[in-house]
Amino acid sequence: MQTSKYSSPPVDQVGIEDRIARITARSIKSSMKVEGLKMALSMIDLTTLEGADTVGKVTQLCTKAQHLCDEFPELPNVAAICVYPSMVNVAKQALGESGVKVAAVATAFPSGQSSLEVKLTDTKLALDNGADEIDMVISRGKFLQGECNFVADEIATIKEACGKARLKVILETGELGSLDQVRKASDIAIYNGADFIKTSTGKIPKAATLHVTCVMLEAIRDYYLTTGKMIAMKPAGGISKSKLALHYLMLVKEVLGDKWLTNEWFRFGASSLANDVLLQYRKAQVGGYQSPDYFSID
Amino acid sequence: MARLEIKKTYKIYIGGKFPRTESGRFYNPKGIDVNVCLSSRKDFRNAVVAARAAQSSWAGRSAYNRSQILYRIAEIMEGRRAQFIEELLQQGSTKKSAEDEVNATIDRWVYYAGWCDKYQQLFSSVNPVASSHFNFSQLEPMGVVAAIASESSSLLGLSTLIATAIAGGNSVVALASESKPLCSITLAEVLNDSDVPGGVVNFLTGKADELLSHFSSHMDVNALVYCGNDSKKILKLKETSADNLKRIRAYAEERILGEKGESPYLISDLNEVKTTWHPVEKIGAAGSSY
């Protein structure tokens, strides 16, 4: 797989900023908001990626994924649980037949600073434990050195190892420098087998923004217009408020259209977003502003 | 040459900043030639978020430091006496009553500054129990307190409610008097100049009728303190706050405005008692071993 198959168009940064400013000035109300909140819940990859993760914590998170708020049986489950490879079997067992998928971060997450052998072994561990989805990180060091073919080959190799599991490629946009670089990395990932492109690891302060998400969605759109194939998108990190999540959904609808508004094609990587959505949902149903005191701690 | 008049813009106070209301609305208090923000429920929501964020670190400060800060409020207020008196005059007070109210308010901040590091000793206790436990009770702040004062107690009354709440480690969302909001906003400026961390006290201006039901129904407000004699209003507040068992403290104006307004019990009213059972060995024949 080579990078010469495509050429990334330059990104109009001012245009993007203007577009996002207009989106964030809008708000969704009443019944539309309720539907948006339910949709956002169904798209969450409930995530715990801590050194301190224990079997107990992962099990608890899996329970939460299936019982977001039993007071409202109409609420959907979240889309997936996102954990380290060593926790995949724990999550798989805890989730049973619930339909909630298990995603595992692999390839020397979060830095990606290791050899291809180690990355493949890491991926294999996650797959052997039963992961449905693999979240890989690209080698940002190599990318920034201009070795795009190295990054492309790596993605293609991991994709091959994934078999049926869907591959999410984390670009870690906060380390790429500019929106043009984000576009370039998106194209490399898309043309080399990514099923999802994902903004961030959540491990550095500069996580997902509407701006980089817009650029990545445009890359997905251009690929779709060229080849007719759909690629999924996952912003991750720093999305903890419902209002922001709804803005993301608006952006997806604007750039890609309704086809992408399902959890097969769009996800949020988040740990605390679910609780805020529940707060807002309960407010819409019951009236009165809610308190996190009355919802489960993550 | 005559100078152009420079009028003050009265804005609300949320999280240590002075924004205008998100609703963009304003009203003119009767007989006063100023535009005052007509706060919406969303301003209130934002204020509660700010108050919640600020509460734990405020409660975590040493009692002595809270004391210093409350005294600082009195100091800064003293320097702004003339402005407070002028605003009270604008709001319809006589010169004598305006001066008296400002004096009483400053004294009250000093009074509660003194209590910050003393009320705990007064209300805490070591309790006798019949097992080998060291059993003690102490006060903890309730959390976010909403403070509402009647129209006639816009400065002294509201100051007292706020002082008792923050002396005990709570954070506050206060609603200024609808007809006399000027001195409340100036009080907010004083607090902002007095090392009170942003968010510990927040001020809204607007119509009580519009906002009170949101004050009482908000699940993230732990207590509501009211100074006034409107029994219907008190009943309504109690009814609508039942959902999260919000503690409602309602005081008659005479209680707060008179000398009974100086009492450590007003601090303990906005605290709750936590009792700890700490196991110890050999109590009984050998005597206490802690």
Radius of gyration of chain A: 18 Å
Largest interface: A-B, 8 and 9 residues
Output the CATH class name of chain B. Alpha Beta
How many domain units of chain A? Answer: 1
What is the overall shape of chain B? globular
What name is given to the CATH topology of chain B? Aldehyde Dehydrogenase, Chain A, domain 1
The oligomeric status of these chains comes to heterodimer
Measured between the Cα atoms of the first and last residue of chain A, the distance is 41 Å
Q: Which class do the helix and strand fractions of chain B yield?
A: alpha/beta
Question: Looking at CATH, which topology of chain A would you report?
Answer: TIM Barrel
Kindly report the name of the CATH homologous superfamily of chain A.
Answer: Aldolase class I
What are the secondary-structure elements of chain A, in order, as H or E? HHEHEHEHEHHEHEHEHEH
Task: Compute the number of helices of chain B.
Answer: 11
Largest sheet of chain B: 5 strands, parallel
CATH architectural designation of chain B: 3-Layer(aba) Sandwich
Distance between the termini of chain B: 78 Å
Tell the overall outline of chain A: globular
Low-pLDDT regions of chain B? none
The proportion of residues forming helix of chain B, as a percent range, comes to 40-55%
Regions of chain A with pLDDT < 50 over 5+ consecutive residues?
none
Keywords:
heterodimer, A: 298 residues, alpha/beta, TIM Barrel, eight-stranded parallel sheet, 46% helix, 11% strand, globular, B: 290 residues, Aldehyde Dehydrogenase, Chain A, domain 1, five-stranded parallel sheet, three-stranded antiparallel sheet, 11 helices
Task: Please write out the topology.
The complex is a heterodimer of chains A (about 300) and B (about 290).
Chain A: H1 13-24, H2 30-42, E1 44-47, H3 55-66, E2 80-83, H4 88-95, E3 101-106, H5 116-128, E4 133-137, H6 140-144, H7 148-162, E5 166-170, H8 179-191, E6 196-198, H9 210-227, E7 232-234, H10 242-255, E8 268-270, H11 273-286
Parallel strand pairs in A: 1-2, 1-8, 2-3, 3-4, 4-5, 5-6, 6-7
Helix pairs in contact in A: 2-10, 2-11, 3-4, 5-7, 7-8, 8-9, 9-10
Chain B: E1 26-27, E2 36-37, H1 41-60, H2 63-79, H3 81-90, H4 95-115, H5 119-123, E3 125-127, E4 133-141, E5 144-149, H6 156-167, E6 171-175, H7 182-192, E7 201-204, H8 208-217, E8 223-227, H9 231-240, E9 247-251, H10 253-257, H11 264-268, E10 271-279
Parallel strand pairs in B: 5-6, 5-8, 6-7, 8-9
Antiparallel strand pairs in B: 1-2, 3-4, 4-10
Helix pairs in contact in B: 2-4, 3-4, 3-7, 4-6, 8-9
